[in-house]
Every structure is written in structure tokens, then in C-alpha cells.
């Protein structure tokens, strides 16, 4: 029988947030049943899971136009269904014509993605960036954001950017806090995580001196060759180059001077600023030589179709041979590619679905904006909590003051104190949130992560239960 010792040492070294998350999800499902409480009455009606950026799980409805078109693509008999809007049926037919054999069940004939979808995405990026050209051959479609980043990490690991061990191991400058799956991906691909701190008191700002410090510290044990930036920040909701002392120009200068590979993850936010556009304005020395990879996903924000696992990369100034390798190993599924096509080519004013689509998008935007403001103000009024405003993104990341008895109990149980807080919150109030340690928080300031793209009534329920639980903890201290 195989034992743990037979497992690849690099696999055994993968850090545990994903394991904690899986166990937590299973517990949230179990707690939602009366079996968990046996003869004791459950103290809440149902579990509300806001630990991940999954708006549909949190109660937000999907976009009707996208679901209708996808339904027709999956069951083409609906092309005859007159109750569906005409533009829905026309768009579905157009998408089916893109597919080999006219079916979403056929294999895609190209690895990097359907050519028509690549073209649509490049045209969308060109519009987004005010005319800065994007080229279809630079667009690589993938099976989601996590997969696409994994592909690039794998690229680095395979020595295409020169990896090694010990002091020659390739390092990635990573913001702290960071997306909770990122450390796991770096571990899986043999890359060293080089942390740089975001400054909470300054709205989770990026600091130029801190980046220099992280670089020097990283060089003691590895070779930093890439810097990871999330725009907006996840889970902190900051926009890294808005209102901070470290601008996009600073980041590019750092990247150029220290030969760093720039990895950017884009979200949808209120005041989108494109790193690619900034790069194009920096002159040929930078614009034509600096390597930049941008990622985007349909999992969050307006579309929220996380289950489809669709995303794309735009690769700038990458060696064609390397780009070819990326294309070969990406191999995106057909269905999420069609959803991506719909996301970058929504209904136009002359289309019958335009009004309903626009109303639904505006509803999502308004809900997210109002929820962010409401939750931040609420949490800042709760004793023992503080929260920085979220400029964009789906999460709030409030700081939580934990009473000494919780910290001591966590030590006794050999778990992180914020994990214990989240476990008790789930058991006592049925609210599932993420623990700050999942996002790389190693200091003595404890945080929790919660998705705020929920129906407003659900958000009020979450906030009320969270306040009730936190007050009970503080009362035990009194």
C-alpha cells in the first residue's frame, strides 16, 4: 500500500489552505442539516456561505441573456422556441456555427481557443484600452482563472523562465494578503512565494519601499523573477495603482530594472485602469520589451459563472515559441468559451434583450456598490472590528479583535485563532466566512473574508448574525 512518504515531496509541501477550505465547506453542508444538531434545535434557519467569491451561491441571479443563449446552444431544438427573444436565438445559432460540427459537444479544433472568440476578446480589449491594439494571437483561452495562472506558473517551473532550487529557485513577489489559492499554486509549480506587505491603514496600499524590501529579502533564499498584482485586490478590494504612493509606472520601472515577469489578474471595477495601456504610454524601451501577462475570468463580477470555469490570458511581448507552448497546454473547453464571447459582446441597443440585460447588469453594479458601503459602515460600528472601504471587487476583509480566551483556546486546539473564530461563527450562527490566515496573514492582526455580492436582505442577515456572535465573544471577556 502506498504511504504519504511515497508521495512526491513537492506535493507534500503544498500548503494547507485548500484542505482547510474543503473541510470547512463539508462542515457548512453538514451544519445545514438537522442531523448535525441531533436533538438540539438548530439556532439558525440556514447556512449562508460567503467565504468564496461565488455570487450565485450567495443568492444573486444569473444574467438571463447569457443563460438563455447557453441553453439554446446546449439544446438546439430551442432555436424554434418563439418565446425566446429573437436575438437570443440568433446569437445561439452564430455560436453554434463557430463550433466544429455545429455542436458544443464537438472537440475544439484549436488549442488556444476558438478563433472567433479570440478575435472578439482582442476587439473588446482594444475598446477598453482606448484604441491600444490587442491581437487575437495574443489571446489564450483557458479553463478558468486558477487554471490559467497555473499554466503560467508551470511555464516558469519548466525552466522557460529559468527555475531551480535553493537560491536559484524562481520566486514570485506576492501581495499579503493574497488570493487564498495562490500560495497553493506556487507550491504546486515549485515556485517560492516572496511576500510584500499591503498597508491596511492606507487602504491596503502598495508601497514602493516595501517592494524593494521584499525583493532584497527574497534574494536571500531565491531568485525573484515575477510580481503578481490583482486589480482590484483580492480579498482586500483595493486598486493597486489608485491613490497610492506606488503607481503603475513605479511597478513597471521596478519590473524592468529587476527583470521581473509581470502577472496581472484583472477584475471588473468602478474605475478600471489598464496596466497594458499604461505600458503602451511608457515609450518603446518598455512597451516593446516588457513581458506582461493579464488574466481575466467569467467567474466573478457581472457574469458570475464560476461553474463554467472560463477565462483568458493576454500575453504581451512573450517569445513566440513560449506562446506556442502556452497555447498547446491550455486547451479550453468549448462551453466557457461561448460564455466569454457573450460577456465581451453583450446585446446592443437595437437588440430585443438589450433593455433586460442592461437592467440586470446595473442591478448587480448597484447592489455591489451599496452592499460594500453598507457592510463597511456597519462593521466599523461593531466593537472590536474595523474595515477598510472596498474600492472594487467582491470581498470585504475586516480586521477582527479576538479576545484572549479565543486565542488561548486556539493554541490548545492547535488551530489558528481566526480559523477557530470562523468555525464557531459557522456552528453558532450558520455564517461561513474565510479565515484571514487562508490569505497569507501571518501577523497578529486577525481578519475574516466575506463576499458582499449578495441580495441586500441576505447581507443584512449576515451582518446581524456576525454582530450577535462577536458581541457574545466580547461579553465573555467582560
Automatic annotation (TrEMBL):
Residues 82-466 form the Aminotransferase class I/classII large domain. Pathway: Amino-acid degradation; L-alanine degradation via transaminase pathway; pyruvate from L-alanine: step 1/1. Its EC number is 2.6.1.2. Its cofactor is pyridoxal 5'-phosphate. Pfam families: Aminotran_1_2 (PF00155). InterPro entries: ALAT1/2-like (IPR045088), Aminotransferase_I/II_large (IPR004839), PyrdxlP-dep_Trfase (IPR015424), PyrdxlP-dep_Trfase_major (IPR015421), PyrdxlP-dep_Trfase_small (IPR015422). Keywords: Aminotransferase, Pyridoxal phosphate, Transferase. One of its GO terms (molecular function) is L-alanine:2-oxoglutarate aminotransferase activity. It catalyses: L-alanine + 2-oxoglutarate = pyruvate + L-glutamate. GO terms for biological process: L-alanine catabolic process. CDD domains: AAT_like (cd00609). Homodimer. This is alanine transaminase.
Amino acid at each position: 500500500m502506498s504511504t504519504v512518504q511515497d508521495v512526491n515531496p513537492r506535493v507534500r509541501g503544498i500548503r494547507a489552505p485548500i484542505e482547510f477550505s474543503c473541510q470547512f465547506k463539508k462542515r457548512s453542508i453538514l451544519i445545514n442539516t438537522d442531523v448535525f444538531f441531533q436533538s438540539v434545535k438548530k439556532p439558525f434557519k440556514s447556512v449562508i456561505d460567503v467565504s468564496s467569491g461565488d455570487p450565485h451561491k450567495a443568492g444573486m441571479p444569473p444574467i438571463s441573456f447569457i443563460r438563455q443563449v447557453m441553453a439554446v446552444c446546449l439544446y438546439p431544438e430551442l432555436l424554434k422556441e418563439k418565446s425566446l427573444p429573437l436575438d437570443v436565438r440568433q446569437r445561439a445559432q452564430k455560436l453554434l456555427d463557430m463550433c466544429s460540427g455545429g455542436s458544443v459537444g464537438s472537440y475544439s479544433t484549436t488549442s488556444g481557443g476558438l478563433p472567433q472568440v479570440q478575435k472578439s476578446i482582442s476587439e473588446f480589449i482594444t475598446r477598453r484600452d482606448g484604441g491600444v491594439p490587442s491581437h487575437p494571437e495574443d489571446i489564450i483561452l483557458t479553463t478558468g482563472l486558477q487554471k490559467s495562472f497555473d499554466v503560467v506558473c508551470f511555464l516558469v517551473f519548466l525552466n522557460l523562465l529559468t527555475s531551480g532550487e535553493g537560491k536559484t529557485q524562481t520566486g514570485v513577489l506576492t501581495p499579503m494578503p493574497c488570493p487564498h489559492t495562490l500560495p497553493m499554486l506556487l507550491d504546486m509549480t515549485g515556485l517560492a512565494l516572496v511576500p510584500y506587505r499591503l498597508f491596511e491603514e492606507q487602504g491596503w496600499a502598495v508601497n514602493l519601499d516595501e517592494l524593494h524590501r521584499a525583493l532584497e529579502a527574497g534574494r536571500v533564499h531565491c531568485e525573484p523573477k515575477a510580481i503578481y498584482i490583482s486589480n482590484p485586490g483580492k480579498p482586500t478590494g483595493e486598486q493597486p495603482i489608485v491613490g497610492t504612493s506606488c503607481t503603475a509606472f513605479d511597478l513597471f520601472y521596478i519590473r524592468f530594472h529587476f527583470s521581473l515577469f509581470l502577472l496581472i489578474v484583472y477584475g471588473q471595477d468602478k474605475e478600471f485602469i489598464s496596466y497594458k495601456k499604461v505600458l503602451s504610454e511608457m515609450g518603446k524601451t518598455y512597451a516593446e520589451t516588457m513581458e506582461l501577462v493579464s488574466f481575466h475570468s467569467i467567474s466573478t463580477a457581472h457574469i458570475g459563472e464560476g461553474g463554467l470555469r472560463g477565462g483568458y490570458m493576454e500575453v504581451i511581448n512573450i517569445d513566440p515559441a513560449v506562446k506556442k507552448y502556452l497555447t498547446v497546454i491550455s486547451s479550453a473547453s468549448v462551453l466557457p468559451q461561448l460564455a466569454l464571447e457573450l460577456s465581451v459582446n453583450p446585446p446592443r441597443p437595437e437588440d430585443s434583450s438589450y433593455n433586460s440585460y442592461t437592467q440586470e447588469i446595473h442591478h448587480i453594479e448597484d447592489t455591489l456598490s451599496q452592499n460594500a458601503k453598507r457592510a463597511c459602515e456597519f462593521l466599523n460600528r461593531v466593537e472590536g472590528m474595523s474595515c477598510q472601504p472596498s474600492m472594487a471587487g467582491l470581498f470585504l476583509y475586516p480586521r477582527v479583535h479576538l479576545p484572549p480566551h479565543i486565542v488561548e483556546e486556539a493554541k490548545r486546539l492547535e488551530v489558528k485563532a481566526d480559523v477557530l473564530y470562523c468555525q464557531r461563527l459557522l456552528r453558532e450562527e450558520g455564517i461561513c466566512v474565510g479565515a484571514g490566515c487562508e490569505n497569507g496573514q501571518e501577523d497578529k492582526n486577525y481578519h475574516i473574508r466575506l463576499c458582499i455580492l449578495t441580495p441586500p436582505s441576505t447581507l443584512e442577515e449576515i451582518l446581524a448574525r456576525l454582530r450577535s456572535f462577536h458581541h457574545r465573544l466580547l461579553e465573555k471577556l467582560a
